[in-house]
Amino acid sequence: MSRNVASRRAVFVAGLRTPFAKAGTVLRDTTAADLARHCTRELLYRSELPGDEVDEVIYSQVVPSPLVPNVAREVSLLPQFPRTIPAYTLNRACASGAQAITNASDQIAMGHADVILAGGVELLSDVPILHTRKFSQILQAAAKAKSLPERLGIFAQVRPRDLAPVAPAIAEPSTGESMGQSAEKMAKENGITREAQDELALMSHQRAAIGQRDGRLTVEVAPWFGGREMDRVVLTDNLIRPDTTMEALAKLKPVFDRKYGTVTAGNASPLTDGAATVLMMEEQKARSLGYRPLTTVRSYAVAAVDPGWQLLMGPAYAVPIALQRAGISWQELGLVEIHEAFASQVLSNVQAWGSKEWAQRLGLAAPVGEVDWSRTNVMGGSLAVGHPFAATGARLVTTLSNEMVRRDVQFGLISICAQGGMGFAMVLERVP
Amino acid sequence: MSAAFSVAHRGGVAVVTFDLPNEPVNKISKAAGWELEELLQRLADDEVVKAIVLCSGKPDTFIAGADIEEFLQLESVEEAVRLSRDGQLLMQRVADSPKPVVAAIHGACVGGGLELALACRYRVISDHPRTQLGLPETQLGLLPGAGGSNRLPRLIGVRAALDIILAGKSERAQKAYRLGLADELVPQAILIDTAVAAAERLARGWKPPRRRLTMTDRLLDRTPLGRRIVYSKAKSAVEAKTGGNYPAPLRALEVVRVAMESGMARGLAAEAEAFGELAMTDVSRRLIEIFFATTALKKDDGVPAGIGHATPIRRLGVVGSGFMGSGIAGTAVLQAGVQVRIKDADLSRAGKGVHTATSLLEQRVKRRRMSRHEYQRQRALLTATGDWSGFAGAELVVEAVFEDLTVKRQVVAEIESAVPATTVIGTNTSTIPIGEIAAEARHPERIVGIHFFSPVEKMPLLEVIPHEGSSADAVVTAVQFGRRMGKTVVVVADSPGFWVNRILSPYLNEAGFLLEEGVPIEVIDAAMTAWGFPVGPVALLDEVGLDVGEKAGKVMHQAFGDRLRPSRVIGVMRADERLGRKNSRGFYFYKDGRKAGADGSIYRLLGVRSAAEVDHERVTDRLVFAMLNEAAMAMSEGVVRLPRDADIGAIFGIGFPPFRGGPLRTLDALGAAEVVAKLERLAQLHGPRFTPAPVLQEMARTGGKWYPAVPAR
Q1: What is the mean pLDDT of chain B?
Q2: Does this complex have an ipTM over 0.90?
Q3: Residue A3 has pLDDT above 70, yes or no
Q4: Which of A40, A168, A315, B162 has its CA 20 to 30 A from that of B418?
């Protein structure tokens, strides 16, 4: 490992993901750990990387199973690796996967590691269902009881309502507002029309379908072997609808405000299962192993807004900071990947980046930039492909890096909104 | 000779460590026995010593048994009885030692080793997977002759003891403890401490608690009537299993009966007498020879010593995900613990291949031979791919695709473009010459034939077949990896059918000719099972599959001419869409995948009548001598390097009766002159295919043998 920290740079070498699948469908019978392990192991084989070259595994998961709180360690305990690779799992909500990658990048630049596997997994088919607090207190007390009568006495306190299971909701703990309600609020306050939202969704599906057809999208996907005999092969994301239309999208009923709402199942990202992993290396190391580095993390930034305000406006703040840290302007971006949690959220952020009032609020001389849709989300986004929370960051980095090489673009931007009012932005630079 | 036993004193306990110099494992030889007796006497006289702990200085064996080489030198029953008596006396000394002896057992403790442990006052064993306790003597045609046949049933009851002795079984630590073979089961780290503590307690007069018996134990093991039921059941089970070909288990049963019903003195006398007689039987000699042959094969890489460098395998590529490919993959994971990547152009087949391979691991879990966690780990070693990704790191790639020369050449070419030049490529075929598969390869030197038998996880044999241009490195790599997969590996020449299928070919053909003559299926198969084969030739054809059999038959006919001309039978069966077990339509009926009686349709299909009268001896002779003659022919062509490999190949590859020692041992036992005479008669009656092999005729003239006589030492 080179000690000369100044000369060190982390590069993206390869990325791979599982098919993204609607929660409750083809991936529902697996576990998050198995999904993460499968994806990472396949990346290892596809990049022909011997397991003992890996220094660390950084993984992420937004809704972990209480039984496997550190999924990263389960990944690093794959038999393809020595059993001595440290691993941790982080959580920065929907920016988790991106955070894992920037953490890896930082660790490599600092000289703490040469090769890191980073990624994220979400199995929303298998969210933990909890007992009520009361019932779990009763169970704990009963476990400590010394006699059968005492134990029965404790159980006698159980009331039917204590037995109702508690499922986690995608809602802000600080405000109780759900993601969808926030998206609805943003659509109204920022004047984002139903039609504009549906148009974005349509574009997302159409572009993803093209990417799937011409193979640019499928090349990033490791086959999943499902079914009792592992012979049901899943090669593609099952949420993409190549033949959807404005008419079909218009027929959908608003979900979060039935009367005046505009956010529907068609213009919101669905609950999704999936995993994605990227291989990050120190540049010289990568070259000495015979790899061709694709991109490097030029800069990144995280910002947060008051969750009680417009929950998903974080990117409006984070992107200009990342650009400033990269020392480049919006105009220099050859490709942009905006995570599509909700169409209304994407369009709200796009509006802010192009607005003079926002520029003033951010203390900028001019607006951040106008989005050029011919260079933005060119293979669709989370609305079509799906959004397994922690896996999305690694998917975006992989898709963007590969496409930057195809189009020979120098700079690319990733923008992700996250729960808690956070926004995450990352500038990738092509490595020649 | 340097001392095998050393003593360390821990307070009043003498810790005796057995560490046989210049040997990988401890064995109880005559010399070691004398040394131990002397030592015990010395410790008995030593006032400081209050108790003794016996342990091993070898890493993963306690004592691997008696020195079997000494058995082969026995020349008379009397001498063998004396050997047994000496062993019994040694054990009696241990049992009668005024200073209590405690055995601290880690690793294999079998045969004479367990008999020694049984003579100790107390046994502590480690809970390590390598710790195994057993009495394998009957597998060598013998019985436990140093008191084991007497002490084991007394310790753990007749039923459990017979279970071990009659089958020659070994039990893992947990099971051994459950059975009462050991008094304590502890982690290896505290084994000696625990044994020393127990020895101290025993020295102070402590009486170890007795095991609690279940109701069944009480009724069956502790009453004469119960035991009578046990003996009679065991007897019929043994008779069914050995078919009267193996005398040892029955003798052992009788000895245990005497030991339990007539007292230990008579029991020991019966034990020594039975041991003496068994030790001089041909069956025991053959089984011991096989034991030595397989042991020798474990060290023989099939190339002259000193040349050839094996690549250690960490990653295995398997091409083709059918029954063979997935069997190879699963066995490689299970036995060798390597990463296995299965490649099949059809992804769903590749996935299914992984599933099939994984089911081998699942069986282990179900039988509690593997923990859930270990299963999860091993399962992750198996992956499937539709392209060649992940192959660049494979040190060995085995192709198990369809048996077709063009397909195999194409696959070899694809493998070569996916792997570095150092990767060894094994081609799994039963009929296609390896040289032809390798002919167009860029690096033919790294290609070697690897012939697995089906089902891979069960069949113990592997044929490794170098073609003319194979490098010694490739051969050694394949041989050593085959061994890691748990196989006995023989290196054979690149000649059609190699060894095993070569000698099988005329045998299966002859079964076909017998069918053509109307000999009943059951008669043919019964003749061979009576002769000692596990299944008869007709049932074997069903197992192998008639499509495979047909293909092999044609190849052999083409290569060797009319001597190996197949019968009409397989063609007729194929025309009737009969493939054998695989489509549940064969010579036999199959119900829910199980064989259910002979299906007589073949006679109708052939247009012959089932013969009413059959000369059973003639049936046996035709089948056996067809095989023996071909074996001699192949040997004279140099298909196999050594008679040893040929016999082991036949025993492990097709179940040639072990008690006969293999086809060449059988030829030697009959004598070439008699064999030639028999073949000439068969040739007169049934045609020139029985013409004696020239090498046999030559041996008949000179009185030659395949094996040199055992030199008396």
Answers
A1: 94
A2: yes
A3: no
A4: A40
